[in-house]
Amino acid sequence: xxxxxxxxxxxxxxxxxxxxxxxxxxxxxxxxxxxxxxxxxxxxxxxxxxxxxxxxxxxxxxxxxxxxxxxxxxxxxxxxxxxxxxxxxxxxxxxxxxxxxxxxxxxxxxxxxxxxxxxxxxxxxxxxxxxxxxxxxxxxxxxxxxxxxxxxxxxxxxxxxxxxxxxxxxxxxxxxxxxxxxxxxxxxxxxxxxxxxxxxxxxxxxxxxxxxxxxxxxxxxxxxxxxxxxxxxxxxxxxxxxxxxxxxxxxxxxxxxxxxxxxxxxxxxxxxxxxxxxxxxxxxxxxxxxxxxxxxxxxxxxxxxxxxxxxxxxxxxxxxxxxxxxxxxxxxxxxxxxxxxxxxxxxxxxxxxxxxxxxxxxxxxxxxxxxxxxxxxxxxxxxxxxxxxxx
Length: 391
Hints:
The protein is of the alpha/beta class. It has two domains: 238 residues, Queuine tRNA-ribosyltransferase-like (TIM Barrel); 95 residues, no CATH class. The longest helix is centred in the last third of the chain and has 28 residues. The protein is globular. 52% of the residues are buried.
């Protein structure tokens, strides 16, 4: 273990301090301080896209140990509207969540609309996929939206391309992302209370990732993110790009890997030096009866669970494992009861939050390599079905 006494980032809205670094891998344990509380990193951020957790309540996710949640500016702009949220006193008050929030700018959601959007140099024209209304979001308008919403951490507006992407398409999107970042930084008006993170793009091309990292980190921002992964590429490609890009990001600022967060993804990202990650995996997989366990991924839908009166995982301390059996979860999922997804989701969320905390403690204790080498063979064999995890 290496104790870090230097490298403290400070701004008016956020501080980040690296407490310990694993000399074998570069994995870090840190403290990210925001206006709404301290986040101990590495950290998994549960997703509350529409200012609500899928199938769970905020007390549920607090009991799971969540320290920060993620919401999406694109969805909140459409419904209920960022101005209404602003009149309500900001997103924290609107949804009665008193801990840190990060908002994604909506770049990925606009990308995923595909046939509903048209990308231009000045922004994105798109059609609301629910009611057909026409909209336009520019980098400056994205900042206005996120300033109104009032999250502790906000993301620059970027362009994400689906993989596999041609070099020309990836390069064009990267340059557009850089131009938009300059506008975002110039038009972000709440720097005293909201931390703007820039996003590194470049698809699967290492030279583009290198160039993007140089440009994005040339802006003196409170933090940086890797975007444009887990959007169609093979797992080996995700790992290659994360492993290549992470060391290009400043060591004294928080590093965020966007939209990636299955158990293996988290372990690998932490090993690379990532501090923050989010994913819809806990609830998406829970709705299919899929659960994370200390022995690997499992399903409570299958026949062996039907008469199993034990918990999902005997090593788990979540509400579901303390109170309910696999047989009960099997019954609920098979009967398509909404509470089945809730209970499985509580377990999955707690698993990822606890995994991050356990890795953090291993880094602090100087035994991360041992922890990684013990856990990696279990997680890498899970062969998660990424088709279930598409946003």
